[in-house]
């Protein structure tokens, strides 16, 4: 896609790279030396936050710190704390322990104990009223200190020793800006103890000099970033609960109105008030913005990152269908509920029923037995705005009877349990054994230690990208930016640092929806202009030791009306050295080089028809596949979205973690069958028929074991008409539906198999070509004892199938331009 031509803005096409909203760009060079934090000549630890938790700490009492200021001179931009990734030391000698930081010459809580701890942070959301989230925490429940964020955008420094607790609260902070906090402590009281916010000291007149040690805890007291412990139980008024909601939801300052981000799929938001069995409760919702809204009740202990339809008893506004913890499109029930309606709900805990009213008129009682306790819940699959009216003073209509009361207050936190997880970004933290100098405090207060990243339109409008920056790459001199979901148009991505502005890249951002095809299309390859406007070619490698797929080996013959994808086998000795690596760079390899045609558009669910003639010899895979690929890393909200799709993490703590969302449907041949002893003895009598939503599978247990799971379904079957490498043209069809989820594979009019698990829900590009599986198993055939052969596509056809919008997710690929080249007139010339 990076090579596309913008017809409307041809004068700017050479200056502006074309991006899709949400696409990754991992090549945004920073032309100057990356900024450096100067903390003088101190020898203690300044850490930048990486994308994994491998930066563990040695025991602080022994000063065995991993790194000094000089070792970690260049900070990463930020680390996103999303409830899944937080930094916590392991137990034992690797812990940064409370005793160690307050121990001098072997004496616990020594009067000589001094320390400084600092961190840079930016808030993504605020806690629910009455609760908090820890930025960092040291110690145990009995004895600890740390910094936590309160619901009113202030932060609080807390120290607790036994029954004594002291704290100090800052003024209100801007939740959309970076801030610096530096905690300082002197057990002797010679220096003031307290904390600095952005360099401004907030003192407690010595009241914070409280013994913080906990001798019973030993040397393994954890230091936690983004996590801690609660210190009290707090009853809060019934509001939407930001602590347990999907990350897509944001809230007004009173936490009564929840509004969602359209870039995320299904997710739930529950209420803080729990409805007890036996009680009667009434509340109202005002559905003021959006299209798709589910509402009802769910058990309070459920996973609110999932769709409400999966976790509760709910109704959908847009079609009036109902759900009881079920997948799929729900059960037909009532008429749709118009936008702007006041939705009233009456829960009868004795009868275990939920009745619904629309603008004061009875709508219906859900035909389910709903055992308590439950909480009110909503969810959406697009932008939405919903206001909760929990009590009589806010209701527009009266409840069914005087027996019904408003929603009860809720307990946001429980004494001794883990506190709600921090949601936001951190980029630096500093640990100093000893009282910091004024110069160090001043240096650490500078939150402009890394540039501010922004997008500027041609009209001069500015958009902050601080939350879109993935991270600084200190060793490679560039900044990782995920293209934001900004309005379509031309932008300069800029870095502002110390009063100087640097243009990093010029981009033309277009919406992903503009690349999605949902109308009928066919191509018989007789029109040069039509084919050029609808197809690209692949130019990259995957799958082991091979020459990849070369753009040079695709040829279109408009006279015959075919697209030929050629491949070179092990016996090729001609002049062409077309092999490429995974980025499309030439390798000089001549053998095991394939080719592939790729659609320019992403296709919605439908019927896909292919008239093809397969190669004759084994050793190469002839494949037809729909494909949509995303990578997610900690630091990007896509990470949380992939976790909500029940995808697992790859990688490890040392090398980093990532998640792959790989939506794919494919036909591959030749192959062995699963029960064959040697999977490298392949034949065109068999094919693989697969469906993917991720790349991982639990190989530790056998299929059918209760612990077995898989993110893909692969079925290996004989072709119903016998070997398919007979030189004849074959008609293949893939029918893909997302509601109900199903994929049918047909060959020459005969149903081969149907898949109903791991069915993709994201529009995909279609790929047709030949490539060489050459990794640990050469499953298309161990040998490729031939020089060249072709896979020929005679016709491609697509007919859309109407499915509910809620069953399809519009999500851009991570790297759609990598390894893709446009068709040119050279592809219509002879070999």
Structural class: mainly beta
User: How far do the termini sit from each other?
Assistant: 26 Å
Largest sheet: 9 strands, antiparallel
Give the overall shape, derived from the CA principal axes. Answer: globular
Helix run count:
5
Strand percent estimate: 35-45%
Low-confidence stretches: 1-11, 50-97, 207-220
CATH architecture field of the largest domain: Sandwich
Fold-level CATH name of the largest domain = Jelly Rolls
| CATH classification, class level of the largest domain | Mainly Beta
The tally of structural domains comes to 4
Overall mean pLDDT stands at 83
Tally of DSSP β-strands: 54
Radius of gyration: 30 Å
Helix content: under 10%
**What quaternary form is this?**
single chain
How would you sum up this structure, described in words?
- This protein is mainly beta and 831 residues long.
- It folds into four domains: 17-32 and 456-510, no CATH class; 45-234 and 417-448, Jelly Rolls (Sandwich), CATH 2.60.120; 238-408, SPRY domain (Jelly Rolls); 514-828, Jelly Rolls, CATH 2.60.120.
- The protein is built from five helices and 54 strands.
- The strands form ten sheets. Strands 38, 41, 44, 45, 46, 47, 48, 52 and 54 form a nine-stranded antiparallel beta sheet that branches.
- β50 and β51 form a beta hairpin.
- It is globular, with a radius of gyration of 30 Å.
- The model is unreliable at 1-11, 50-97 and 207-220 (pLDDT under 50).
